[in-house]
Amino acid sequence: MRIDHGNLRALAAVVREGSFERAAAVLNVTPSAVSQRVKALEERMGRLLVQRGAPAVATPEGQVLVHLAEQTAMLEHDALNRLGLEDEAESASIAVAVNHDSLETWFIQAARIFAGRSRATLDLQSEDQDHTAALLRNGAVLGAVTTLSDPVQGCRIHGLGSMRYVASCSPEFHARHFSAGVNARTLAAAPVLVFNRKDALQARFAARVLRGAPWQPPVWWVPSSRAFVQATMAGLGWTMNPLPLIQRELDGGTLVPLRARAWEDVPLYWQHWRVNSETMDTLTAAVLEASSSLVRRRA
Q1: Architecture of domain 92-299
Q2: What would be an example GO MF term here (predicted)?
Q3: pTM
């Protein structure tokens, strides 16, 4: 069975952009043309490939073909580069999932290194570090920074080091809530900052202190890594801040740890689909180089 390349590109664009209209703008055709191409592909495959909605999302069968489309585009980009026809190549954009804190700290350095070595760009998708692997598994991205230490089927995995998170707050907040120490009673009463409903870092730190005691503190929901730092300095609550974002504040005393050794090291891994691609090799090398700023385990 042969798959029409144009129809495959249309499917990938719809899933990537989330709608037939935005896909049409990217492909420089009409929404009707995109719809016809996707419908033709569905008829060829004999199954539904896109759930029409807001946003449009791939079915499990559609995800397989989106992954094929993304890999094909990257390999085509590589081939034209090797032939010296890079000016003829369409701009390749590699879909990558990166956890919020890596994106705010070290990953842009990886993008800068990659940009100096490749003409491809990155389609960065931000997600919690415990959930980026799901985007890799369903074919939505070709690479991901994740906490998953087991390789996703069909993927290669590289250890990057660990992101260190420090349980921290402002000196005034510490004096107000933890003057009697960090214990089950004080943690239960002190407001805490949480990124979103997927963020379990604060709960894990609290669990080590509470040892089974219930924990239902006042919560501030703050879905921004940098706003986290600002909110912590403003005294709204304590939280687990990424060390690279608050090292200067800790050194200057505008933020303080909740207690001695109040940190957690979260191991990070780079996983990408197992494909023989110069572009992916270049991106992987850039990620490994930029991640040298992460905490390394001592031998």
Answers
A1: 3-Layer(aba) Sandwich (3.40)
A2: DNA binding
A3: 0.80
